[in-house]
Amino acid sequence: MQFNTIDDMDLEGKRVLLRVDINVPLDHGRVTDATRIERIVPSVHDILAKGGRPVLIAHMGRPKGRTVLDMSLRQVLATLREKLGRSVAFIETLDGAEAPTEEQLSADVILLENIRFHPGEEKNDSEFAQRLAGLGDVFCNDAFSAAHRAHASTEGVAHLMPAFAGRLMQAELEALEAALGHPQRPVVAVVGGAKVSSKLDLLGNLVAKVDHLVIGGGMANTFLAAQGLAVGKSLCEHELAETARDIIGKAGAAGCEIVLPEDVVVAREFKAGAQSEIVAAADCPSDAMILDAGPKAVARIGAVLEGAKTLIWNGPLGAFEIPPFDRATNAAAAYAAELTLAGHLTSVAGGGDTVAALNGAGAADEFTYISTAGGAFLEWMEGKDLPGVAALSR
Ligand code: AMP
Question: Which of ligand 1's atoms lies nearest the C-alpha of 314?
Fold first, then answer.
């Protein structure tokens, strides 16, 4: 997809509506993790450097079209000022009844109150989008993580004025393009996590696009069971056996190799430090649960990674929150990080628990790109058009 970036735009003297994701965690009104705020700094600074005046539009939580005080963006103002190192004025209402204050007129940056306080936002109401468009001259979207929603501030407004991608959006789209758009082959996808049912569309899309699909986590159990192996008390969606066989069939027709664990770590209890043993995937005892992939499986994944040029990863290979069932995830992630560092692999990961799992493995920093967008990243892996991204199309 072709889209404009900050570099393509003349912003001198322009008010730039900048959609950002600063939906940060709060504790009693204090920001406890400012990562999302830190990540918008490059766009704000680059817009200011080009003579533009950023008007930030953002949401917090799910107020469902009503004013909910503990979801007010006023709570992030101090952190925003600190991270941007600029003056930031806050605008509480959009009705324009009151004249702008001195502070609002002179500030470098303007932050609008939680856009989801307005019922028109999530409805993508065209009148509301027009009102938003009236607040600026051009529109910059830097909120990839909200791009799977067709809301007024992510989609509607983009059709009403010149629209372009912010730095974060640009980095995300370039990484995704490198991983699944026009990737260097061979491409390997690692998909783990709890259930097949939540990742059906994703698996269906991937088998048509990648050369190797490594399936891990609880969802691998469903595939093992579908091939007639006993999985004891493991998490398993037996009712999806037919679906799993379908996916294997589609992969075969598309020339995609499915990699399932040949050995597994089993335990009788699901708790930290539980006694565990390694058995062949075919030998899960009837009273045990499969909680991780075994060392042979990890070696096989390593060999696949070694032969690959591109990796896309979503979901842990085991119950990674509970040691020792984090071993396969940690080992595979560490190896992917090593190959990336050596310049052999482009590695992109994201969605759900993946960021936590890769952080736990100490591998996240070496990956080429880690997306912190949950739902948007998954919908993109499913091959869906993201309305907020499509609206930026040149
Ligand atoms: P998801 O949100 O679908 O990516 O799933 C992540 C969750 O899957 C994590 O909480 C893991 O603990 C869990 N998980 C991974 N492998 C297993 C397994 N073999 N048995 C039970 N839960 C697992």
Answer: 4
Tokens encoding 306: 């070694």
Domains and CATH numbers, the chain: 6-168 (3.40.50.1260), 183-381 (3.40.50.1260)
Residues with CB under 6 A from ligand 1: 193-195, 198, 217-218, 235, 290-291, 315-316, 318-321, 352-353
Rg, C-alpha atoms of the chain: 23
Classify residue 180 by its DSSP letter: I
Task: Concatenate the DSSP letters of all residues of 15-52 into one string.
Answer: EEEEE------EETTEES--HHHHHHHHHHHHHHHTT-
State in Å: Cα 394 to ligand 1 middle.
40
The model's pLDDT over 250-305, given as tens digits with 9 standing for 90+, comes to 999 999 999 999 999 999 999 988 999 999 999 999 999 999 999 999 999 999 99
99 falls in which pLDDT band (50, 70, 90)?
confident
pLDDT digits (tens, 9 = 90+) for 158-201: 999 999 999 999 999 999 999 988 999 999 999 999 998 999 89
Are 150 and 108 in contact, with CB atoms under 8 Å apart?
Answer: no
Distance from the alpha carbon of residue 318 to the mean position of ligand 1, in angstroms = 6
Amino acid 211 reads D
